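Render this sequence as a predicted structure.
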Amino acid sequence: MNPSPPTPAEIEQAIRNVPDFPKPGIQFKDITPVLADARLFAGAIDLLTEKFVSQRVDAVVGIDARGFIFAAAAAVKLQAGFVPVRKKGKLPYRTHEQDYALEYGSATIAIHVDALKPGSRVLLIDDLLATGGTAAAAAQLVKRLGAEILEIGFLIELSFLHGREKLRGYPIRSLVVY
């Protein structure tokens, strides 16, 4: 007998809070207990992909690095390709790059120039939506390649950081919202 699928509340219960990591004042959301529980991990992937199992999805784009875990599993479930968006300098072929603002300074992410074909139907997935800068930069890279973003999905959203504001115009799915 198959166990019942988990609810978002069950997934939330498994997320561990780690105070003062990586620096004082930060309440880190540790997803490793979700990943270690096969039912919760599979259930999270099911919840992130449920709207798209009967639709054409050409690729699932995952954001460096924890987003890779969920995006790769979603790609397998949807029988779609997986495309990594990585930190600048980490991809071996020619890339498009996109800068984005951090709390102090900026960062750059990249995608291979041939990672997506124009008109590709794409899900963009990351583990966490905080301020939205990284996801917005990744969305810009996907759009630069001419692909269509069907939805941007997150395991966790920290709503008090208002990351959705940087993602206006895109459908967003967050399984657990704090």
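Summary. The first strand starts at residue 16 and ends at 19. The CA atoms of residues 47 and 175 lie 7 Å apart.
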